[in-house]
Amino acid sequence: MAASDAGRHPQNVGCRTLSLSAHVGFDSLPDQLLRKSIKHGFCFNILCIGETGIGKSALMSSLFNTNFEDSPSTHFLSSVRLRAQTCELQESNVLLKLTVVKTVGFGDQVNKVDTYQPIVDYIDAQFEAYLEEELKVIRSLFSYHDTRIHVCLYFISPTGRSLKTIDLLTLRSLDSKVNIIPVIGKADSISKAELQEFKKKIMSELVSNGIRIYQFPTDDETVSEINTITNGYLPFAVVGSMEKVKIGNKMVRARQYPWGVVKVENESHCDTIKLRRMLCTNMEDLKEKTRAYYELYRRCRLEKLGCRDIGPENKPVSLQEVIEAKRLEFCLEMERKEEEIKQRFLQRVNEKAAMLEEAEQQASMPVCLVSVF
User: What sequence ranges are listed for the domain Septin-type G (predicted)?
Assistant: First the structure.
C-alpha cells in the first residue's frame, strides 16, 4: 500500500536550472503553437443583455464591421428568451468563429421577478455541456465547439439617473459566472455632461452593491498603460449603426440626425472604438477568466456528485478510489433496500397467512340453529 501511494504521489525533489552546451531546437515551440492556432482558428462568444430596441444588434455590427442578419423582436413576449447566432469572420489569415447571444424580451414583462433566471440557466447550460464533453470516455476537446460565454455586454438604458432594480438583480446573479462589461446603449441620446455624471453614478452603485465587473488587466507590461487608462472609461458609452453615411469622400458608420451626425468610429463621439480595441486586446484574458468561472462551476458540480480530492482523514484520494467508494456505497444501499423489500414481503405473507388461518377457523366452527316459537 505504501509503495502504491509513493507511486501515485511521487516526491518532489525540486527543479534545477541547467545551461545548454549547444542549440537543441525547442525555441521553435512558440512558432509551432502559432501555426497550429492559426490553422485551427479562434473562438469567441459574446452575450448581449439589454432591453428591446437598445441597440444590441447595431453595436455588434459596428464592432465587427459586418451586418448581422437579425429579425426584429417584439415587446410582448411573456418571458425572456436567448437567441444565438454563430458566424465565421476572417481577417488576413486569422479565422474567428464568433457567437453572439442576445436576450429577447428582457425587461418587457410586467412582472420582472426572476427575469434574469433564463440567462443564468443558459450560462450554466454551456458550462454543463463542456463538463459532459470533458467527462466522456472518448472525447475531442480540441475540435469541440466551445459555447461558454467569454464576455457579457450589459446594456444600460441612457436614463441619466441610476441603475434600475432589474439591472442590479441581474448583474448580482451573473458576476460570479461571467465577465461583465457594462455599456450605456444609445449614448448619443444624452448630453456629454449628463453622460459623465451618469458614468460616475453607475460605478458608484456597482461598488455600493458589491457587484464585480470585468477590469482590464494591468499586470501585463505590454498593455498595462492602455488598460489602466481604459478602465477609467467604464461603463463604455456606445453608439451603433447598421447604416453608412457619406461624409466628405468616405462612407462611414454613423447615425444622422437633423442637428448633425454621430460617427460610430469617432472616439470624441462615443466609446465604441475603445470597446472594440479592448475586446481584441484582452480576448485571451477574457477566455482565461472564463476558464476560472468554469472551474468553479465544475468543482461545485463534482462535489454534488460526491467527488472529493481529499478523503475523510485529510489525505489525497484518486478518482479511482472515489469511484470504488461510490460503487461500494451503492452496492450496500442496494443490499439494504433488497433486505427491506424481503422483510416487507415476508410481513405481508405472514399477515395473509394469519388472515387465511383465521378464516379457516371460523369456517370450521359448528353452526347453532336457534328456533323461536
Answer: 40-304
